[in-house]
Amino acid sequence: MRPSCHLALACLLLAAAPLLAEEDPRTIAFNRYRAESLKFAFSSSEATSEERAIGLRGLDKHDCPAAAEWLIMKVLVASDEGDVLREAVRVLSKYGSQDTIQTMAQLWGKAFKKNVRGRVLLTLAIGKVKSDESRDVMKLALKAKDARIVAAACRAIGKGDDDTFKDALLKLFKHKEPMVRAEAVFALAELHEIDTKPRIFGMFCKDKSNFVRFRAWQALRKLERNNRLPCEIQAWMDWWEEKASTVEEGEPNPWGKVFPGGQQTLKASSWFGIPVLADRVVFVMDATQRMDQSWKLDPGKERKKPPEKRIPNFFSVKTRYGLAFAYLNDCIKRLPDTTQVAVTFYHDRAAPPNHSIYPDNNKWLKLKRKKVRAGIKQHAKELEPGGTSSLYEGLLAAFEFGAKKKPAQNGVQVICFLTVGKPTGGEFKDRPDRVKGQIWAMMQERGIVLNCVGLHNHAFALLKDFSKETGGIYVHQQQEGDTVEPQDLDFWPDKKAAFEAARRDRKAGK
């Protein structure tokens, strides 16, 4: 064939390439869906983030490279809307065809060189798909320079239930960043690697980071399926000895031959019964007018409780604000001296934690603990409670803590969040789905644990979801004689039964 014929044939093939691609039924279906369902949501300035998130849900049916590329480039790279990002990650994590995974893997290396959040979210999506291509991406992610990407890979491996990375996770126990060590430890628990218990127990006893030790404690509870063991080494020593004594002669001891030892004086501080053990923690406190209302308790009942279950300084607690301050003051008093702490208050707005009480993060270690407690007390006296409750603004203030430079090294690790009632102001009230997605995205990027306490009747499902999704703990603190509103009864089965019985009696005229 003459050169001119070669050139003509090449031109014909290039012109026909898009048409050949269009012959793939999945691509045809995706293009039709994009033209009809996504055109308004992603082209119109009038469309809301909720409409865009809803539009993405239909992409479950379009597992093809074109759909994956569109999701990544149009959403993960370009969007800053939390609910839209979350939906894109959910859809991508369900894709499984080889061509689609190859496209996702190629874009992981090219599209996010300077977009850490995007790479974190795509890592979470790819890690849930079991294939050789996705494993190759996980191997690259585990070697990334940014600790946030490595930590995300650990989370993805744990959620994706891929036990081929057991040895790689164990090697990360020596990683220089606590965020990575913490996620590697917990990922092994999610994979239910029982034979790694001695190594995890060693991290719980010996690691230099309080946050890693906290996550190791959570991992041990998960592996042992025992949520009652406290965050104390002595309790786990007793547990280890009890378990070791039941192992028959000749059988392997699941804890190893020798107790790891280590810092046996460890005892986590407690906030509303939630263990607080971290290198950097921020308390986010409700300061609305509802916090000024009285808090009922029975001094006789409190006095009979064990000290660890008793309200701190209960005899002086008169209001909800007094209750919150009693727990806050007691927790800070018992935190290790190496823990960096900040407190922020919110109502219709929130003060940055670095400006609430402590002048700045670097001066914390120079302050005497007694002086800090006195500062909190003085701040509490000067605070003027506001009217509306802006949960999102309060959480955003906590995210600011130490996050301006190197958030993986300096940012908050644990947020202890307290609220009463439902959100009544701020962006959360106006756009709850988007804001929930924003918080989810920030938590995933930084590996933050969010502990939530709700007083009286509050946003039960919201706080419970926040804690569950971030590895935190949720507590509903009731006062003496509290009742539960009908819409919240599912969280209290015993009270639901009593409520329904009373309703039946009313209908029967009793």
The biggest beta sheet reads: 5 strands, parallel
Share of helical residues: 40-55%
Shape: globular
**Strand percent estimate:** 5-15%
CATH class assignment of the largest domain: Alpha Beta
The strands making up the biggest β-sheet line up spatially as: 4-3-5-6-7
* Rg over C-alpha atoms, rounded to the nearest angstrom: 26 Å
Q: Based on the coordinates given, report the CATH architecture of the largest domain.
A: 3-Layer(aba) Sandwich
Determine the structural class based on helices, strands and strand pairing. Answer: alpha/beta
Unreliable segments of 5+ consecutive residues = 6-22, 354-369
Kindly report how far apart the N and C termini lie.
Answer: 99 Å
DSSP strand count: 7
Mean pLDDT score: 78
Remind me, CATH topology of the largest domain? Answer: Rossmann fold
Our count of domains comes out at: 3
Q: Helix segment count?
A: 24
| CATH homologous superfamily grouping of the largest domain | von Willebrand factor, type A domain
